[in-house]
Amino acid sequence: MTVEGSIFVQAVALGLDPAWRRLPPEERAADAQAFLDAEDRTSADGVRTLTYSSIGLERGVDLLLLRLAPELDLLESAGARLARSGLGRWLSVRDSLLGRIAASQYVTKPTDQERSVLDGVPKRYLIVYPFTKSTDWYLLSREARQGVMNEHMRVGHGYPTVRQLLAYSFGLDDGDFLVAYDTDDLAVFGDLVRELRSTESRRSTVNDRPILIGIRHDLADFVELLDGPGT
Predict the structure, then answer these.
(1) Has this prediction a pTM greater than 0.90?
(2) CA nearest 42: which of 9, 81, 4, 99?
(3) Which domains does the chain possess?
């Protein structure tokens, strides 16, 4: 996916009402189909959605969506359509994080790792990692911040199997940044995060919660996980 102009990003964590599983099989099947049909219409409207299961992984979260759209209004429409469609009526928003993709002031030529979550085949795991910087960070000189970020990026480039998508949340959400990482190896991702904790940039991070994780499944596979084969 080529990024031109503004692209808005939303990571939304949804939790399923356990009562849905106690519905008769034919009602669950109808709900599942209506849900899948609603997502098909959302894609036709120009919203790209990557879906991940968090069943049993995140407290109160079953479905993790990473949505991308050229307008914020399209994200609103997508959320409304899903919420009123079959299975969507049984889902509640547990977390929602917003950002906007823009050129980095610290990177002159992005590598294959930057924004590559948007391109090619999604990897097995998604980690959504929001964070906020301190006031002191923004009061540093441009040169001082660039030096700190150079170290940060040098560490990141040592882990080429971990891709990232960086979005800016200024004025859109509580945090400053929304980063989505994807990887096939969570152990490698853990090593990356641990090494980054010992870099100078960590001093200026005041919050990096909530971290969300999901396993890649298309929506039909997710529904099958919820209710078993044949739904």
Answers:
(1) yes
(2) 81
(3) 7-100+215-227 (3.30.70.1030), 120-211 (3.30.70.1030)
